[in-house]
Specification:
By secondary structure, the protein is of the alpha/beta class. 38% of the residues lie in helices and 17% in strands. Strand 8, helix 10 and strand 9 form a beta-alpha-beta unit.
């Protein structure tokens, strides 16, 4: 029987070229502040954490985290790793509860839960490798032949550039697209009109037989969102994402109750109970947790069951291997988010630079290999010259 012998958390600092910031790229929670410059700066993830959980017989499971990796590494090294070393990885439920309950005074949300997520993902990858099965087979198996994905890189830009990008994605076989709003409350009525021009331009390219989703990334407030919703209804959005900050659950409830445009969120929720509350309070019509924030695969699978019981679809944030395996194993996950391979911009792209084996879309779908154990990814050595790695 294998036991966990060591846990290695590393922070990968990207030092390679990046796409320069541009104005009105995407609204975000920082827009409400009076500072000028790149409001997205604190939401660019140019660092990543890998978490390698190794057994006493040399098998390694790989987890990861994208938010505040330096702080997450400290939480893993100083507090969580000692709780996990020596355990049987197949006691994953006990391992999760031990990390959650022993760190409960400080770790219920944010950094603590992200650290738990990284270890838990690694434990599931490890179990898959030990069992010789892909993680989705351990979670219940294949519920769909392929996973439809939506093209998620339509950040706000000039109308011409956005339409060209949408046209290319349409030719590549995508049938669902997500764009971002570049203007929010501080931009007034003129900004509203700029937002609506870009929504109209997107529909002009993709038509009304394909899905269109719009993301505010917490950059609006309740008043602004209430004024925008009626203007958006003619465009038949599949959902409006994170219209207000994550803590404004009452705002989500009010907006979702209007019934015209479904409201989505959960990307910045960090617990099973937090997601349960969003569902039970009818704050969202689509739940979008991220597995490497919400408590890992162990927590995500519980959330999926709660959401299914309430007939709320789950579409995890950001795609990536840990989310794809959950989507494949759950009928309540109808599609996945997908960021194409691209130069480093916001930072979601770093997954392709750190890992080998990440699924890539073909004709608007991704496929997982039934014969590839674990999550099917490995740490790459192809781009090491562009990283400063902190052990």
């Amino acid at each position: 029987m294998s036991h966990i012998a060591s846990i290695r958390a590393r922070v990968w600092n990207w030092t390679g070229p990046t796409v320069p910031p541009q104005g009105h790229f995407c609204t975000n929670a920082s827009d409400a502040l009076r500072e000028t410059g790149d409001a997205m700066s604190s939401f660019r993830f140019h660092q990543w954490l890998t978490c390698e959980v190794e057994t006493d017989d040399g098998i390694v499971g790989i987890g990861n985290a994208a938010l505040a990796p330096q702080a997450v590494k400290t939480a893993i090294d100083a507090y969580l790793a000692p709780l996990v070393i020596g355990a049987d990885p197949f006691d994953y439920a006990y391992i999760w509860e031990k990390m959650y309950r022993r760190s409960h005074a400080w770790g219920r949300k944010g950094i603590g839960m992200i650290a738990i997520s990284a270890i838990d993902i690694a434990v599931w990858d490890l179990m898959g490798k030990l069992a010789g099965k892909p993680v989705f087979k351990l979670l219940g198996g294949r519920t769909k032949e392929k996973i439809p994905v939506y093209y998620s890189k339509l950040y706000a830009d000039s109308i011409e550039n956005m339409q060209k990008e949408a046209e290319t994605a349409l030719r590549d076989g995508y049938t669902a697209f997500k764009s971002r709003f570049g203007f929010g409350p501080k931009d007034g009525m003129a900004g509203m009109r700029e937002n609506l021009k870009r929504v109209e331009a997107a529909r002009e390219v993709i038509g009304y037989d394909n899905d269109l989703m719009l993301d505010c990334y917490m950059g609006w407030n309740l008043d602004y969102a209430k004024r925008m919703l009626p203007k958006l209804e003619p465009f038949e959005l599949r959902w409006l994402e994170e219209p207000v900050i994550a803590d404004d659950v009452a705002g989500y409830i009010e907006l979702n109750a209007t019934g015209g445009t479904p409201i989505s969120g959960g990307e910045h929720e960090f617990s099973i109970i937090g997601c349960k509350d969003l569902i039970e309070q009818k704050a969202v019509s689509v739940l979008q947790y991220d597995t490497n924030r919400v408590g890992g695969i162990t927590a995500a699978q519980k959330i999926n069951a709660i959401a299914e019981a309430h007939q709320i679809p789950v579409i995890p944030h950001a795609g990536q291997a840990h989310n794809y395996h959950l989507s494949m194993a759950n009928t309540n996950c109808p599609l996945s988010e997908y960021f194409p391979v691209f130069d480093v911009e916001v930072g979601n792209e770093l997954f392709y630079y750190i890992f080998d084996g990440e699924a890539q879309a073909v004709d608007g779908c991704i496929q997982l290999d039934d014969g590839l154990p674990g999550l099917g990814i490995s740490i790459s050595d192809k781009h090491l010259k562009h990283f400063n790695i902190h052990e």
